[in-house]
Write a structure and sequence with these properties.
With 313 residues, the protein is an alpha+beta fold. The chain is built from eight helices and 18 strands. Helix 3 packs across helix 4.
Amino acid sequence: MEVAVEGLRFSRSGRTVLDIPSLGFAGGSTTAVFGPNGSGKTTLLRLIGGLERPAAGAIRIGRAEVSRNSESRRHVGFAFQEAVFVGGTVRRNLDLALELRDVPPEERWARIAEAARECGIEAVLDRSARQLSSGEAQRANLARALALRAPLTLLDEPLTGIDRVARTQLLDDLPRMLATFAATTILVTHDREEAFRLADHLVVLAEGRVRAAGPKSVVYARPPDRMTAELLGYTVVEIAGRMLGVPAGAWALGNGDLWVDLLVERVVDMGNHLHAVGAAAGERVDVRLRIGDPVLVPGDRVRITPRTCVPVG
């Protein structure tokens, strides 16, 4: 189900939180709204879900305009960043969510079983929902939203607050879960890896404004400004009068068509390789050293070149 945002403005305590003239989310896709903390990501998700009211503009899910009391909210499954459960078992919490959407009992049981299996929570279905580990609670939170099989699923920082092992597993599992249960998904995250691993499309949000939007490969290849490029993981440097974004790991020692001098400040031993960290063209630069590269020490000045880069702006 498509989502359209038009002329959206939202303020809190006299401060503009969001100012989005136009933004669309394609039906049948997963879109990550990506940006730093405080950029307005969660507020945008809550507005789409009808939990907040804009100062101006409109949001449409399909043909229905969203409001706090509109029927469009029944088309939305929402997993909040903090998993909140009522008293009782995990099964009861999932069942209640489906009951509130008027899903018949027989179908509720089948959906719960399927969602529990896909989300890996079958073993905790009959445990108190308030006695779960962080990873179990997040999986149960996702299962509750996905079991709704809503036309639109909203996920707020779905991997926040869980341990590294559980997060790694969910990064692998969540795309399959979304393909099984969710028609259209919008998720928000401040983590670049999550955005690229989980989504087809990317919306870069910073300071309440959309900096870039589109298929993630297109957004990554064409950062429109320095802030967007840095959020996407580029080191932005000016070389030969051109502003360029250099991806992580793309610097190498030596000359090339484009080059800068690096003043080495420290050399970091990563166990199986070394990194030279220092200043180049007024920016902090990290160069992964390769077998055969000269031994560097702090104070050395060496020439480096980007093996690949993109224009910025």
